């Protein structure tokens, strides 16, 4: 049995790459996917019109989807909301911000929020994952059938992309990655970096992988706009990072990740 997913991130409605997003949307609607994952930063500044555009786009996608928020999905200009109810707008228009789950044939996916409206450091765009978030995710993943592809989705990469154009610097991230690997997660999907990557976590049995998607916005960081397609069977998870040429998507990089 093969499981097929599309993984998109950092669309940044308000700064979206209109042509690339239209082409990606056509592919999402014309091909069969077991799940579409969007790992945060749907908007530029979490303005209401940006969130409405994101919600309308999501509602037009066929099939199942799982969406987590990113740091840009908390208001950048409405300071009181950002400080006290950072994801109220997002939850009103898009969906739950804290936890999302999906179970399907051969698939178990747990989504959580690593973004914060405010935090005690200068750069609020960086990530956090609490001990409770980690424990809840590990419990859920450990209870899923071992034969399922067990995924965790969050916006910030829990471990840094090697040679990446920016960092996530997730407080609690490395400890969470180790715990999730021990619990049996197969892949941890993320965004934020605006560049695709796939790497094994150097812990547990070495068969848990961090996989990041690029951006579908004009906010490129050294790689073209794009998104990932994941295809998994009992032996491996195959990741194809599609890159935008200006008129179509073509494979930019591929990885084959052995399953436990």
Strand order of the largest sheet: 3-2-1-10-11-12
Task: Report the C-alpha radius of gyration, rounded.
Answer: 17 Å
Please give the CATH class: Alpha Beta
CATH architecture: 4-Layer Sandwich
User: Uncertain runs with pLDDT below 50, 5 residues or more?
Assistant: none
Estimated structural class: alpha/beta
Arithmetic mean of pLDDT: 97
CATH homologous superfamily designation: Metallo-dependent phosphatases
**Secondary-structure element series:** EHEHEHHEEHEHEEEEEE
Strand fraction equals: 25-35%
Number of helical stretches of at least 4 residues: 6
Shape: globular
* Number of extended strands: 12
Number of domains: 1
Classify the helix fraction into a percent range. 10-25%
**CATH third-level topology:** Purple Acid Phosphatase, chain A, domain 2
Characterize the largest beta sheet: strand count, sense, and whether it forms a barrel: 6 strands, mixed
C-alpha termini separation = 16 Å
